[in-house]
Amino acid sequence: MHSYEQLRRFSEQVFLQMGCPPDHAALAAEVLLSADLRGIDSHGVARLSGYVRLWEAGRINATPNIQVVHETPSTGVIDGDGGLGLVVGPKAMQLAIEKSRQVGSGWVSVRHSNHFGIAGWHAMQALQHDMIGMAMTNASPLVAPTFAIERLLGTNPIAVAIPAGEQPPFVADMATTTAANGKLEILQRKGEPAPVGWLQDKEGHSTTDPQGVAKGGALLPLGGDREHGSHKGYCLGAVVDIFSAVLSGANYGPWVPPFVSFLSPPANPVGQGIGHFFGAMRVDAFRPAEEFKRHMDQWIVTFRSAKTADPTQRVLIPGDPERESERIRSEQGIELLPPVEKDLQQLGDKFGINL
Amino acid sequence: MHSYEQLRRFSEQVFLQMGCPPDHAALAAEVLLSADLRGIDSHGVARLSGYVRLWEAGRINATPNIQVVHETPSTGVIDGDGGLGLVVGPKAMQLAIEKSRQVGSGWVSVRHSNHFGIAGWHAMQALQHDMIGMAMTNASPLVAPTFAIERLLGTNPIAVAIPAGEQPPFVADMATTTAANGKLEILQRKGEPAPVGWLQDKEGHSTTDPQGVAKGGALLPLGGDREHGSHKGYCLGAVVDIFSAVLSGANYGPWVPPFVSFLSPPANPVGQGIGHFFGAMRVDAFRPAEEFKRHMDQWIVTFRSAKTADPTQRVLIPGDPERESERIRSEQGIELLPPVEKDLQQLGDKFGINL
Which of A186, B122, B187, B352 has the least C-beta neighbours within 10 A? Predict the structure, then answer.
């Protein structure tokens, strides 16, 4: 068990050792750790050594020159110069927020970036400004579009954060697949079968083998199969890919570079790095903020108090499970799985940092 | 069998008989008929008598004063004054397009409107301007959020239209439920069971009874159940509801008024009418349009040529089935189901119009 602060400081020091400037290292550690705090263990310190290996392979630039390469009053494109997505993402979201302040909304597409942690963190940056925040990113291809047996899309998450008044904010953060890859990794560790509708084998048949993707299969778009709307999950993943990469000039579809250093990026790239897309809309660009928040409170209370089939269950508001995790882990600390613990120890040894 | 032009003119005359100004009647007929042309029969002339009955019940205003009630350079709110969504929607989308021309993007939330036909038509208005278009709307509550047995959301569709170069555009238009209500109506007419994951009965148990919703059950969010990601479909439907109604001041959640005249709108409304949300983003507000379109072409060709499990099937690009329907029906005409044919005959008799 480690405290949040202990893991945050460790990560910050690792980023410093990679040569990140101090403000970048602190920001990257904060974004990375927000995943552990919010219970999305697959996207937190468990990935720290992955960033290090990509940096060692020359595929992450620790001192990027992050630039706005094109803009209008409400839109912009940022070139991340191969930097950590954990740093490039927040800069791009800040630009969206600034534009929203100026003209009501701001929309920023990003190229030449890297894994940006959890999408929810970025979207939530808008909340403190009474803005609605949005964040999406493309990712290494693991997902087969409906009918296909090739992997052409990433799990391409969408996050939307909406402020409320007395109620906590609405924070949706979802992969556009039936199940996120992290959920599958849990089943792999336990050796348990995956539910039907999560993945297919390399011939395109439904499989419950949690190793199915590693064996040449694919994750399935939200919906699972055509009859259950997988073409809609495919549409959503495609929109994320296009907004993040075709708008910005990043790699899209099968050209998105893998997050792991042992796989080479595809030859003949169609763009630079991976892509993200951020949005911010000032609530009072539509109606007075207090009025909006009062109605959001009513929306939330209405949904939360809906009758349920099982009286021990409640209808959740998007963000509820993550808030509960954050409450518990801020107080009690963060328990790491043994392989993650070992991974961090090795990183500590390499850089001479105590965990 | 009727030609497109025959049905369009008939609908236009019905709207004129309702007292719509000529430009509104022509526009409403065009938007309505785009559904029949594109093969979404549930949203076309089959609904014409429904609009008439709502007008007779005093719930549609044929001569609305459609007003921009609030705006910033990139956002706006429109009050539809109880007009046809088929007219209010296009006016709002035009405002989004105009703002996009000025400052790169435009986002318009609409209150006090009514059913706006197919979301795809509205999103596609952006294409001719080399813009990405978006349209969404809330709708009468038929959908239970994950775990709930109450109907709190509509099928709340999302449409995204993205221009390409030599390839046809990408046009996604999807209900945020596993299956749209129109698909269920087809099974009801045929007396066939619905697939598991489409709906639940009034106790919240999975059912295949296509009359399940009429018997107090509910449609299920995209995903079907928690294990298959229904909380994500619920998130998407919720975002549509909030963007369309909480931002604008329309009714949301269980307060959205029903489209049918024989059901009264809920007492104590929380807003006015139903809500929509529209967006437009100029492609060249991000990168040169020709460059974007060239990459969209490559995206489309890559996905369309992906290997499939069944060699007789191809990976579809969103919009393909509707384009195929439009091609066939423009040439061969539109076949109406007998009850729809009868419905239109009765409308014709009422207003003295020949079908």
Answer: B352
Which has the closest alpha carbon to A350: A10, A6, A1? A10
- Residue of B89, B199, B81 lying closest to B151 (CA atoms): B199
pLDDT, one tens digit per residue, over A263-320 is 999 999 999 999 999 999 999 999 999 999 999 999 999 999 999 999 999 999 999 9
Beta pairing class for A218-219 and A75-79: unpaired
| Contact (CB<8Å) B72/A147 | no
Q: In this complex, do B229 and A295 lie within 8 Å of one another by their Cβ atoms?
A: no
Mutation pick from B303, B307, B316 vs chain A, by most beta carbons of A within 10 Å, is B303
Token pair for B201: 């009965």
User: CB-based contact (8 Å) between A136 and chain B?
Assistant: no
- B:248-277 residues touching chain A, CB 8 A cutoff: 248-249, 252-254, 270-271
Q: Residue A248 is which amino acid?
A: S
Kindly list the distances between the CA atom of residue B203 and the CA atoms of A65, A121, A212, B176, in Å, as whole numbers in the listed order. Answer: 58, 37, 36, 22
Map out the domains of chain A with their CATH numbers: 4-285 (3.30.1370.60)
Is A312's Cβ below 8 Å from some Cβ in B? no
- Reduce the secondary structure of A191-232 to three states and give it as a string: CCCCCCCCEECCCCCEECCCCCCCCCCEECECCCCHHHCHHH
List the 175-234 stretch of B: residues with Cβ below 8 A of A. 175-179, 195, 197-198, 200, 203-205, 222-224, 227-229, 231-234
Mutate to test the interface with B, among A246, A297, A305, A317 (most CBs of B within 10 A): A246
Query: Is A327 within 8 Å of chain B by CB?
Result: no
DSSP helix/strand/coil, B56: helix
Residue-wise DSSP of B258-283: PSSTTSPPPSS-SSSSEEEEEEEEEG
Buried b (16+ CB within 10 A) or exposed e, B181-194: bebbeebeeeeeeb
Task: Encode pLDDT of A57-87 as tens digits.
Answer: 999 999 999 999 999 999 999 999 999 999 9
Instruction: Kindly report the pTM of this predicted structure.
Output: 0.98
